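INFO batch 0412 | record 1 of 1 | parsing
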Amino acid sequence: MIKILIADDHAIVREGLKQIVAEESDMAVLGEADDAVSLLALLPKEDWSIVVLDINMPGKNGLEILKDLRLSHPNLPILILSMYSEEQYGLRAIKAGASGYLKKVSAPNELVKAIRKIVSGGKYINQSLAEKLAYSYENNLKTQKHEILSDREFEIMCRIAAGNTAEEIAKELMLSVHTIYTYRNRLLEKMGMKSNVELTQYVIQNKLIEF
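INFO prediction complete | emitting tokens
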């Protein structure tokens, strides 16, 4: 039996994933978590085959949780599930140790196939992401500005470019508004930029978010 642990802060998403898996006789969702704390509490309770982890979690985001799990459970396969494009988070997720990256819109058609491939020891990435990985390794000496950002700085940059206010970002990430401004100022400095407008133009030009 393929034992699946789902970590997503939206109950409706977890329910949808469970319905997809329910059609398979050899796999089952035996655990659900809505944040990092509940996920970590569930890990010792079962011999999990795979964790399906949403990248957009409250508090610690999916990439931060992924890095923690790679240290504490290095042999546990993790499939990152995301509403974001491969350009935005796919490369970061795979480089951080994810066994696969799947957009939520693709889950109804690809989730079962992704789980089977990963549990059998493979990686699940689509052609677009595979090409980006190949290009990244071939050009590892040519670093783009956004690649020097931390995962949190990168996340906040994308949210700013998507039109979210500091207050909205703070509420979503469970951080203070002051902390958001600190991250913003730091990432602008790292990228040699002076305004949100300049930052947004960069994000659009590099196709880091989908509009």
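INFO post-check: The two ends are 40 Å apart (CA to CA).
INFO record closed
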